[in-house]
Amino acid sequence: MLCQNNSCSFGSSEGFITSSQSPLQTLGFLCFNSIFLLKIFLKIGVFSALRAVPQKEGYLGLYKGNGAMMIRIFPYGAIQFMAFEHYKTLITTKLGVSGHIHRLMAGSMAGMTAVICTYPLDMVRVRLAFQVKGEHTYTGIIHAFKTIYAKEGGFLGFYRGLMPTILGMAPYAGVSFFTFGTLKSVGLSHAPTLLGRPSSDNPNVLVLKTHINLLCGGVAGAIAQTISYPFDVTRRRMQLGTVLPEFEKCLTMRETMKYVYGHHGIRKGLYRGLSLNYIRCVPSQAVAFTTYELMKQFFHLN
Fold first, then answer.
1. Are 170 and 234 in contact (CB under 8 A)?
2. What are 198's strand-pairing partners?
3. Which residues share a beta bridge with 197?
4. Residues 207, 208, 209, 213: is their CA dihedral positive or negative?
5. What dihedral angle (degrees, nearest 10) is formed by the CA atoms of 88, 94, 98, 100?
């Protein structure tokens, strides 16, 4: 029950973090797929682009798809962190795997579990965020669900692009948990006085100081995002489906990656929008891992 309470609290915290960063998520997504916004982004930069979007879409345009994201992120965050603890215990006790590698394995499986459970909501969020003012295909979350189900193969239509998402999430979540856990254990082993403090729920256990937690979480997010980003680009294109004119050339993960690489290369194709994602994911992961550590103390899990 304590684990479930921890996951629940983390889910709500994750929802607040995601909502506050919705403008950056929407901008990054639109810049990737919209010629108009991409030109603005490349020419005048992030902050000017953030001003340009409201001029074309209104200020609410920065929050397109945020409703679906908020509904998704609560169970996603809860499932991921709860699953991580369960998988970590299972891998250690049943498989006998210990050391840093068990964090990598448990994190990868936890990320994949959370993605599979919440993927339809992510699909709807992407479709809503991609819409341009005056050319709306969907009027809201429920309408998007009904339309995708009716026109794109029923239930399977909600899982378009799942494979690149799983392949991207496995290294992303795995590397995130692995990097954070490794930095934490190494830091507390070599500089316990400088970097650590006694846990509020168990004075015999050392935990990282809050600002060190934020730093380690940010570094973990940056490394994980860099490794998995091409899969994220592939997922976005596949999720859009018939919305994109080159839909027939992006039916599978292999075709989509080949198309993006062939037409745009690596830097402007497979890694387009990465810098903007750093601005979003680094503070997000920093706050996420810090919240996770604080909730463990709050619910006496140490």
1. no
2. 206
3. 207
4. negative
5. -30
The encoded tokens of residue 18 equal 């995601």
Question: If you search the block for the tokens 């400088």, which residue do you land on?
Answer: 194
For the chain, residues with pLDDT lower than 50 are 1-3, 9, 12-13, 16, 19-22, 29-44
pLDDT digits (tens, 9 = 90+) for 197-224: 999 999 999 999 999 999 999 999 999 9
- Closest-CA residue to 233 (of 285, 276, 191, 272): 272
Q: Which residue has the tokens 């810090």?
A: 290
Instruction: Copy the structure tokens of residue 235.
Output: 């997922």
Look up residue 241 and give its amino acid: G
Give the integer Cα–Cα distance in Å for 126 and 69. 9
The token duo for 37 is: 């916004």
Instruction: Give whole-number Cα distances, 238 to 59, 241, 247, in Å.
Output: 27, 5, 8
Side chain identity at residue 222, one-letter code: A
Per residue in 109-154, pLDDT (tens digit) is 999 999 999 999 888 888 887 776 666 788 888 998 999 999 888 8
Angle 133-276-241 (CA atoms, 0-180°, nearest 5)? 50
- CA 19 to each of CA 14, 32, 74, 290: distance values in angstroms, whole numbers, following the listed order: 9, 20, 11, 18
* Residue closest to 290 by CA, chosen among 203, 221, 224, 227: 221
Q: Would you state the pLDDT for residue 130? A: 74
SS3 of the chain: helix, strand, coil, percent, to 5: 80, 0, 15
Q: What CA–CA distance (Å, rounded) separates 172 from 246?
A: 28
pLDDT score for 222: 95
Using only C-alpha atoms, what is the Rg of the chain?
20
Report how many helices (DSSP H) and strands (DSSP E) the chain contains, helices first: 12, 2
Q: Which residues contact 204 (CB under 8 A, 6 or more apart)?
A: 198
